[in-house]
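Quick one, probably user error.
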């Protein structure tokens, strides 16, 4: 087994190499029954250790203070990929709460958008709540600036971790992503269903869309459609795929 400092050393060597790459998972709109965008998710294939989960390596980078090192990759590579998608499709990327405290984030985003030519309304940034937003004033200012550019904002993993109701007061989210935990096995009259229904009605009152994560079955999809959920993601539609496989998915669902 490898200890975390060995993993971190290997990871730092892997930065800017092909060991780190992006995969894309479709976001499916339940109303239109079409794919409305893709979420870019990072992968690390280490020659020594095999595939390492981003849940592990993102946390290591956050703890070592090196998370900004991947920021440029996250707001670069997938954006270039998305420029060749049909117009309304939105690209969503994950930015950890720690990165959100970087005052230069909006400037970097603006620069990269100009460089790749992707219209801002086709970009969404997901705030991933593994740690609390460290400086809420900087984070709020960053979110306002990103909104002013035209970029969309989503709150990831809603209902778990540090993301709380307070965030709906403070930050201008366009979408709430409900964590898989509440979606798995969702059935009539269960507590999960009541929680998800409650979140949907709360979000809709704020004019915020709701996306359910981790949908794996037809019956979960049917239930979510029935209770007014706007969008879903999950293995039932498709697992994350390489950029080359995106046209096949678009032909299947949007063709
Ligand atoms: P997330 O943003 O909440 O992404 C959803 C995770 O659920 C992804 O895991 C995805 O592959 C997985 N998933 C999707 N559909 C299903 C399903 O139907 N069933 C199950 N069991 N899982 C499903 P992944 O790719 O391992 O990513 C884990 C987390 O790592 C992400 O959670 C996100 O918080 C973080 N992450 C991934 N890429 C990046 C990145 O580029 N930057 C940052 N800051 N964080 C990232
Ligand atoms: Mg996400
Ligand atoms: Mg999530
Ligand atoms: Mg997550």
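Nope, works fine. Designed sequence:
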């Amino acid at each position: 087994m490898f200890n975390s400092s060995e993993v971190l050393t290997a990871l730092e060597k892997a930065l800017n190499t092909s060991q780190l790459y992006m995969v894309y998972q479709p976001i499916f709109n339940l109303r239109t029954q079409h794919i409305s965008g893709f979420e870019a998710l990072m992968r690390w294939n280490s020659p020594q250790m095999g595939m390492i989960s981003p849940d592990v390596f993102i946390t290591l980078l956050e703890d070592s203070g090196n998370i900004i090192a991947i920021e440029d990759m996250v707001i670069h590579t997938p954006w270039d990929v998305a420029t060749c998608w049909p117009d309304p499709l939105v690209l969503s990327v994950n930015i950890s709460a720690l990165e959100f405290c970087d005052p230069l984030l909006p400037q970097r985003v603006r620069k990269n958008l100009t460089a790749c030519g992707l219209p801002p309304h086709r970009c969404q940034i997901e705030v991933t709540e593994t740690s609390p937003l460290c400086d809420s004033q900087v984070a709020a200012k960053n979110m306002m600036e990103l909104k002013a550019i035209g970029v969309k904002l989503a709150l990831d993993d809603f209902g778990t971790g540090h993301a709380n109701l307070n965030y709906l007061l403070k930050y201008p989210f366009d979408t709430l992503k409900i964590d898989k935990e509440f979606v798995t096995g969702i059935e009539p009259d269960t507590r999960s269903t009541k929680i998800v229904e409650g979140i949907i009605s709360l979000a809709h009152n704020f004019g915020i869309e709701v996306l359910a994560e981790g949908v794996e079955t037809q019956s979960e999809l049917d239930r979510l459609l029935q209770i007014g959920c706007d969008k879903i993601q999950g293995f039932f539609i498709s697992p994350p795929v390489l950029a080359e496989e995106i046209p096949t998915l678009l032909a299947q669902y949007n063709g």
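Residues 156-157, 177, 179, 213 surround magnesium ion (ligand 3) (CB under 6 Å).
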